[in-house]
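Suppose a colleague, Dr. K., hands you the sequence of a protein chain of 473 amino acids and asks what its three-dimensional shape might be. Before reaching for any lab equipment, you can write down a predicted structure in C-alpha cell form. Begin with the sequence itself:
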Amino acid sequence: MTTTQRIVAGVTAAAACAAALAGCGVGDTGAEKGAHGDVARDATKAAGAPAPRNAVRLIGDGSTAFTGAQPHLPRPERLKPGQKPPQFVVFSWDGAGEDSQRLFSHFRKVAKANNATMTYFLSGVYMLPEAKRELYRPPQHSPGRSDIGFNDEQGIKDTVRQLRGAWLEGNEIGTHFNGHFCGGGGGVGQWSVEEWKDEIAQAKLFVKSWKSTTGTTKASPLPFDYDKELIGARTPCLEGRKNFMRAARELGFRYDTSGVNNQVWPKKEKGLWDLSMQLVPVPGRAFETLTMDYNFLVNQSGATTRGNPAKHEYWGDQMRDGLLKGFSRAYKGNRAPLIIGNHFESWNGGTYMRAVQETIERVCTKPEVRCVSFRQLADWLDIQDPKTLERLRTLKVGEDPKGGWTSFLSERPSSAPLSERPSSAPLSEHPSSAPLSEHPSSAPLSEHPSSALLSEQPAPAPKGVPGAPAVKR
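The predicted structure, expressed as C-alpha cells, is then:
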C-alpha cells in the first residue's frame, strides 16, 4: 500500500449520520437498512408518526462512533456432552486497506457469498496521509519513517468505506500496527513493552482521527469505538511477540496470532488466546509451511513477487491444495481451528488471491463448518467448559478421537460460569495433489515484511515447533 491508492467513499453529513441508526454511510457500506433495528413506536404518538431511532454517539472528531452492538454476530454456544465440535476456519488479512486493486471490496463480496466473516488487520499508517507523515513517531526510528509508506486522502476514504462496510457485516477490525519494521536496526523484535504500547496507541489514534488528518468534515464515521473493537493483532514478520503479548495483556487484548504452531486446539498463554499461524502441507514437497500467501511465494519464486509466469497457475494450485489438505485433516480429524493469513497483493499474477478465494468457496459452505473472525473464535472458546477444551487439546494433528466424538466428549461438563461475550459464525475442502516439481525450496519464512517490500527477510519459525523446516536467510 503506497500513496498511489484511490478512493470513492460514501459521503453523508455527520449530522445525518448521528440521526441514522445503521446509516453511517451511503452506497456500498455493507449496512442493511435498519441493521440495528428500530425502537418500538410510542403508543401515545399519533398514528403515522415516524419511529424513533437509536442515536449514534460520535467519538472525538467524529472519525469513529458508537452505534450499538455489532450486527451479525451470532451468540456462541457451549458444546453439549458428546457433541462434535464445529470446524472453525479463520481467514485474516495483514495490512488491510483498499487500493487500486480493489481486493478488500472483492473479498468482502466473496465472504458474503460464502457465509463467511473474517478479520482485517488494519495498518494504522494506511489511515495517515503522506502529507502528515511526521505525526507518526515510531519507536527507535525517526518521525515520519515507515517501511510500508503512508496513504493519500483518496486511499484513506476508500479504506474507511471498506472498514465501515466490513464491520457492519460482522467482520473484525484488528491491527497490524504501523510502520512494519522487521529485522535489526530498530525492528519490532527489539521493542520494549512500553514501546509496543506506544505503537498500539498511535495505531488507534490514526484510526480515531482520520477526519482531522485528511481535513474531512462531511464523511460518515467508522461505526465502532476502536478502543473497544481492538482485541487482537498479528505482529509484523511475526517478530517481537514476547513483549507485544505483555503489552497486549495490560491493554485488555484477548488473543494473539503472531506465533507458529501445528493444527491443534488452541490454549491461553498468560491470559491471551494463542491463535497462532499454522503449518500445512506443501503438495509435492517434503515439508510443511505456514498458512500464508507470502510463505508459499518464498518457497516457489524466492524473494521475487514476479516469478516465472508459466508457473503462476501451478503455484496457486499448490497453495490452494495445501490449504485444503490442512483443512481436510482437521475436518475429518481433530477439528482444530484452521488459521489462515494473507495480504491484499497480486503477487505472481494474483495466483495466491485465486487460491484463497477457491479455498473459501470450497470450505465455507460445508456442513458443520464456520468461517469466522478471530473475535468470534475467541468468543466461542471463552464459553466452553475448560475440561472440554483440555480434552480436545489431547488430539494430535489430524487425529480423530478413538471411539468417536460421542464417547470422547461424553463427560458432562463442569458448571463453570459462562462468558457473556458475543459471537461465533460459518467453513470446507477438496484437495488435489498433482506431482509438483520446482526449484529447491528456500524453506518457509515466518511472515511477509508487508506491502511490496521483500528485501527484508522475516523471522524464522520458532525452534521446537514440530514439522517446522529450517529457514534459509
